[in-house]
Amino acid sequence: MDLLKPTDEAALAALVAESAAAGRRLEVIGRGSKRALGRPLQLEATLDLSAFAGIVTYEPEELILTARPGTPLAEIEATLAARGQCLAFEPPDWGPLLGQPAGGGSLGGVVACNLSGPRRFRAGAARDYLLGVAGVTGDGARFKAGGKVVKNVTGYDLCKLVSGSWGTLAAMTELTLKVLPAPEKTRTLLLFGLDAAAATALMGRALGSAYDVSGAAWLPAGRAARTGIDLVAGRAQSVTALRLEGHGPSVLARLAGLRALVAGDLPQEELHGQRSGRLWQALRDAQPFVGEGRALWRASLTPMAAPVLLAAVGAGSEDAVLDWGGGLVWLAADAPSHMAASLSAALSKLGGQATLVRGSAEARAASATLSAEGPALLDLARRVKASFDPRGILNPGRLYVGL
């Protein structure tokens, strides 16, 4: 496979235009940390965008950062942390989950896959913070969309389309994102001993309350033990975790109210600052599933449907972790093809979608992405793909056959 590594946008546009004319299909990568996601590709050339790296501008007072897609995510987070700011959508680091070193991911990879962490249900997804994007379409045309403010527009919202397209629509060269102040204080309430159904109901009550919960997750005992956090791992019981963030007095007052609402007679603990942060980082990065060989699915659906999904696919007591109040289900499986069939049948009734985050090339080729979306929506996706990439040369088939 040929390796193409342009160093500026003009060279990138010329290479893509040349490839389109020749029908040469391209695997588009940044730092390569997410090549194991999606359907496996066997193409004629790799388009390496790692040279498009570095922070272009950072305006802390305006809460705006512009960077190139190959910029290491760790560099961006360190820059923001030095000014007391953060990426509110909590982008995950799946390097260890996929057998790679931690800290190898790039900003472009997170945006291209629209990856978000535990705060997703409250703060929004990665695409909700993407204000502007520049890049090159599949026919070699250079484009810019959005800017440094949110505007009402007509036609395609290119930022929303590019984010979550897995590199199938365009090769990005520059990204502008909205950043936010980091929370002043964090507290996590831990409740022990609930099964998945009871935990989902409790998380629903917490999220429906006035206490502004910013994280809600459930781990069975064995998965909780893999977090390495003493108060979580040492109880040998399932853990339901509820996170509160914000100004100090507000967090403490809301925590007291939340305890009164949901705790009852349940055994409970409380995590402060650093340990609280480590727990939600572990959930963000799927740490309870790191280091095992089983296939791993990530399904999103209506939160209260999570226990129904687990029953429908025959999940064992240690197979699943719930996040987003039950709206995100991490599901380990020994037989990916059997789980794919069970998930597909369940999602057709419950709605939602699932992605095979970790699995063999054969399993990924068979069913990397499952969705309850009907043929009309898939047809729309194909027409969008054709308008951006007429010759179908950018990551063809990465999401679905023909996309």
Helix run count: 14
Strand content: 15-25%
Give the overall form: globular
How many structural domains does the protein architecture include?
3
Mean pLDDT metric: 94
Q: For the report, how would you describe the main beta sheet?
A: 5 strands, antiparallel
Taking the alpha carbons of the first and last residues, their distance comes to 21 Å
Task: Report the uncertain regions.
Answer: none
Q: Count of DSSP E strands?
A: 19
Rg measurement, Å: 21 Å
Structural class: alpha+beta
CATH fold naming of the largest domain: Uridine Diphospho-n-acetylenolpyruvylglucosamine Reductase, domain 3
Strand order of the largest sheet: 4-5-9-7-8
Binned, the helix content reads 25-40%
**Main CATH class of the largest domain:** Alpha Beta
What's the CATH architecture name of the largest domain? 2-Layer Sandwich
Question: What layout of secondary structure does this protein have?
Answer:
Blueprint: E1 2-4, H1 9-22, E2 26-29, E3 45-48, E4 55-59, E5 64-67, H2 73-81, E6 85-86, H3 107-113, H4 120-123, E7 130-137, E8 142-146, H5 158-162, E9 170-178, E10 180-181, E11 185-192, H6 196-207, E12 213-219, H7 221-225, H8 230-233, E13 239-246, H9 248-263, E14 268-271, H10 273-284, E15 295-300, H11 306-312, E16 320-323, E17 328-333, H12 336-350, E18 353-358, H13 361-367, E19 369-371, H14 375-388
Parallel strand pairs: 1-3, 2-3
Antiparallel strand pairs: 4-5, 5-9, 6-10, 7-8, 7-9, 11-13, 11-14, 12-13, 15-17, 15-18, 16-17, 18-19
